[in-house]
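Annotators were shown the component list below and the corresponding predicted structure, then asked to write short factual statements about the assembly.
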Amino acid sequence: MKFKKLLFLTTLTSLIALLVSCASYVGGTNASAARKFISALDRGASHTRIALNTVHSLVLTNVIKPEDGISLTEALQKFNAANAVLYKFAGANIVFDEKGNGVLLLTPTTQAEAERLIDSLNAAAIAVLDEEVLTSSVSNREQFKLLAKTLRDLSKQLTQALGQIKASKARSDTPLIIPLKVPRAEIVSWLSMENKGGI
Amino acid sequence: MADTTKLANLIAAATQLGLEITAELLRISQQTGQTDAEILAEIEPELAANAALAEEHLAEYRKLIAERTKPV
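Structure shown to annotators:
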């Protein structure tokens, strides 16, 4: 049975790695910065679902304990919540042309908000692999390191897309200013919860 | 849990993940023909579904723990 579990984990690792490599192809170098930003948010949502189902499978097959399943699922829940806040932020700050192509408009204030939200998303991704929380075997930790890395990579891609947007705005002679449509209280409340150890 | 049940769970889990990843690859390949607005619109339901899925799994794990600790 141990061999089968090992085979299962190895296969799973390969499949997730394949998924990550394929997903990274989306929004290649020619895609707009807004497209890359949206793609990274989209992948964040998809990877969270896959990670939730991976944890579920590992609990059902007794590879990890239900207690570990709870810890990991709660961490993924926080990542999903962080992604949801960033999604709302993006939705409120992206304008679309008649062809449906988006442009993320940033003021100095919204830019700072975006950076903080991405940092929070990254912190939530790191929390998925909390050594204090995860009490499974070494091989299982390795498995979850892959999941955590996948989630962390997404926040890196968001940061890169944001950097590209900032660079293109710096070249623009006509900076666009739009009001922040995301309820500020919601973001502040979320950030304050995060500072207390939750999201 | 009997070995046959474990094996059945294992196969079911691997199949489910395999199908899910295949569906994800298909969805990603279709995104090249989608506008930014269309992709963005698809994210919100997925985030909501994730939140519901997490709650469902948490309830299941708690039930498993309760069953394990139930006095015989």
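Statements collected:
1. Helices of chain B lie at 3-30, 36-69.
2. Residues 31 and 38 of chain B are 9 Å apart (CA to CA).
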